[in-house]
Amino acid sequence: MTDEKPKEETQEVSEEEPTAEEPEKKPLPKPGAARAKAPKVAPKKEEKYLSRLFEVENGHDLDVYEKHGGYQALRKAMKMSGEEIIEEVKKSNLRGRGGAGFPCGIKWSFLPKESDVPKYLVINADEGEPGTFKDRYLMVLDPHRHIEGCIIAAWALGIRYCYIFVRGEMQFAIRRLEKAIKQCYEKGYLGKNILGSGFDFDIYVHPGAGAYICGEETGLIEGLEGKSGQPRMKPPFPAVVGVFQAPTIVNNVETISSIPFIIENGGEWFAEMGIEKNGGPKLYGLSGPIQRPGVYEAPSGITVGELLERYGGGMLPGHDLKAYIPGGSSCAVLTPDKLDAEMGFETMREAGSSMGTACITFMDTDTCMVRVAARLAHFYHHESCGQCTPCREGTGWAAKVLDQIEAGTGRREDLDLLLDMCDNIQGNTICALGDSIAIPVRSYIQVFTEEFEEHITRRGCWFPAWSRRQRQARSDAA
Amino acid sequence: MALQFSEEAEAEFQELLTRYPNTLAAMLPALFIAQREFGWVSVEVMDYVAERLDVHPTRVLNAATFYTMFNKQPVGKCHIQVCTTLTCAIRGAYELIDHLEEKLGVRLGETSADGHYTLTEAECLASCGTAPMFQVTYSDGEIEYFENLSPDRVDEVLEELNAKLKDLPNPREMH
Ligand SMILES: Cc1cc2nc3c(=O)[nH]c(=O)nc-3n(C[C@H](O)[C@H](O)[C@H](O)COP(=O)(O)O)c2cc1C
Ligand code: SF4
Ligand code: FES
Question: How many separate helices (H) and strands (E) can be counted in chain A?
Fold first, then answer.
């Protein structure tokens, strides 16, 4: 913790580019016992890849991108075969950046080589997992890197069309991408016979319209087809039957934005910038009552503690860390004794949670864990598409019971009831949204059991209220 | 009068249709155009979109009701949506709402009597690093994010919004 004053933060972002803050360059903490599996290459931490152009003026413009080496990876890729590219991506240990962490190269190898119908690439830019705010920076500040990644993926996989599904609220990102795509058509990077190779490829931007469930890949596909975003049963997986009944690869924005670096420097280079099975530089989002919230680039496998202290500047003065969520609200909650956990899919599982989107939410000792669990239950209830009874009903019940505990009308047996409900939801639904509520709710109860019990015995919440209405309700009750 | 896209919207709509292998897939972008043109998505608007996409009206009803960005009731010229999901809540979103309710003279979920402002909550808008924040959707279809907010900053934003009101159509009067 530091006792510096929090930075004045009053700029509005609106249609302007979001600002990525420069991490303060403090000396690296010594790799001590807490970092037993330190990254193989003591990474050149200040080297930037994904965020390289974030602070370059007009980095989103084609000319500037080309001046910084843009579209050279595409030229190199076009001299490689599809198999060679997939092999490099496999070697890179690039894991899906959308939250599930599926190895990208393996996913790509599931796409049938031959197909009677055109194959599709669908980019998941629906970024909506609470706590997550990284893809928008890639789309707004470096759209061409993303487009270059799309073209390379399409070339490698024999894909004809791509849709970038951007959440509708992010009009600024949609416009930025559309402008960049237009520049690419003019320059011959998109359209017919790209760079004289005989390869044809088109990209379109598709707006979402306000439904978190469209972030789930099959919900996204339904939304793209013009229907309500109700996830499909899997199998068949999108690689076999995806959008418009055609073989489809769905990848997250950051996953695809990483591809040009893999082509440029090789899969092994990428893999070395990380830990076992988790390769590459990546973006981390830090939020909550910390000194410097924002998006930062660092290697895979960095510890949460290092992210918080060195990049985020520690907690705000007067705020002590109580808990954190490693990668979006569907991950289990962790306590400060787990700050040495490394940001990787396996390492986070060992720590008792999951890496998810790698956008970390920090919470201070003023934060009520019952209220947090209730708030998240409301979120998932609101966003449930309603197809599966355990999810539709369970999220609503969980929200109601948690509200009651916070309000002071909870009963001891409610905790068992909630845990039971979580067991009934998890694994019994069409998509993973069901798990996304069961896992965190169970974890808040199990990690903070005493706090939950005390809400029941003390008949209410003693943490500072969030709103006037809440304060009013409390004084009315008193 | 029967609904009809303006010339500009019609061109945009025609271009849309070239992007997809069928017309149904143009549903969401087409509904955005319709909402911008006609202020809100009434049953009449849904029927028009169904006709233009050559799909059954229940298809449009289905989409229009599933997605929260389509207004099935008219809202104010400026629709303020305050994110109240976890990070924003921790960083003061509810204080912003308290403040906005007082300043605008409306409660959460209401539209001001003059039709200028609607105040509602939204779920995480991917601005947690710049929390708390709200999004403003203007009746001409533009969307703007205001981030790193505090009550004082909200007062400044409201002044900006007030200055824009005269150039914005009232959604109620758009069809
Ligand atoms: C409820 C739910 C919401 C999701 N939301 C997103 C999202 O907003 N963005 C995203 O990239 N992936 C999201 N995912 C994960 C996708 O289903 C999918 O795994 C991902 O897009 C695959 O891309 P990747 O392998 O490149 O990560 C979500 C999953 C679930 C179950
Ligand atoms: S788990 Fe929930 S969100 Fe997913 S398909 Fe079932 S009802 Fe819909
Ligand atoms: S919690 Fe408000 S933008 Fe994410």
Answer: 19, 8
- Asked whether residue A437 carries a pLDDT value surpassing 80, the answer given is yes
CB contact, 8 Å: A167 with chain B?
Answer: yes
| Omega of the bond leading into A289 within 30 degrees of 0 (cis) | no
What distance in Å separates residue A84's CA from the closest CA in chain B?
A: 31
3-state secondary structure of A303: strand
pTM exceeding 0.80: yes
**Cα of B162 to nearest chain A Cα, Å:** 17
**pLDDT digits over B6-37, tens only?**
999 999 999 999 999 999 999 999 999 999 99
Q: CA–CA separation, A214 vs A206, rounded Å?
A: 12
Q: Going by DSSP bridges, is the β-strand pair B143-146/B134-138 parallel, antiparallel, or unpaired?
A: antiparallel
The helix-helix angle for A433-447 and A413-425 (nearest 10°) equals 150
pLDDT for A471: 79
- Tokens of residue A421, six digits: 């409900």
Token pair in block for residue B43: 């049953």
Over the stretch A68-127, which tens digit does the pLDDT of each residue have?
999 999 999 999 999 999 999 999 999 999 999 999 999 999 999 999 999 999 999 999
Distance A99 CA to ligand 3 centre (A): 17
Q: What is the pLDDT of residues A161-189, one digit of tens each?
A: 999 999 999 999 999 999 999 999 999 99
Query: Tokens 């999220």 sit at which residue?
Result: A395
**Contact A133/B at CB under 8 A:** yes
Which chain B residues contact residue A293 at CB under 8 A? Answer: 128-131
Chain A: give the shortest CA distance to residue B30, in Å. 10
- Residue length of chain A: 478
Helix (H) or strand (E) holding B86: helix B86-90
Alpha-carbon distance A143 to A394, whole Å?
A: 40
Q: Strand A321-325 vs strand A359-364: parallel, antiparallel, or unpaired? A: antiparallel
Nearest ligand atom owner, CA of B123: 3
Taking the mean position of all CA atoms in its chain, how far away is CA A173?
Answer: 16
Q: Determine phi and psi for A169, rounding to 5 degrees.
A: -65, -30
Q: What is the DSSP string of A85-134?
A: HHHHHHHTTPBPTTTT--BHHHHHHTS-S--SS--EEEEEE---STT---
Is the pLDDT at B43 greater than 90, yes or no?
Answer: yes
* Cα A309 to Cα A318: distance, rounded to the nearest angstrom: 15
Query: Mind listing the domains of chain B with CATH numbers?
Result: 7-66 (1.10.10), 78-166 (3.40.30.10)
Domains of chain A: 62-272 (3.40.50.11540), 278-363 (3.10.20.600), 369-470 (1.20.1440.230)
What distance in angstroms lies between residue A219's CA and the mean position of ligand 1's atoms? 10
Beta bridge partners of A204: A163
CA-nearest residue to B125 within chain A is A128
B172 near A CB under 8 A: no
What number is the average pLDDT over the span A282-296? 98
| Cα A352 to Cα A429: distance, rounded to the nearest angstrom | 22
Among residues B51, B150, B37, which one has the least CA distance to residue B95? B150
In contact, B12 and B26? CB cutoff 8 Å: no
Which tens digit of pLDDT belongs to each residue from A196-227?
A: 999 999 999 999 999 999 999 999 999 999 99
Q: Measured between CB atoms, does A228 come within 8 Å of chain B?
A: yes
Cα–Cα dist A206/B19, whole Å: 9
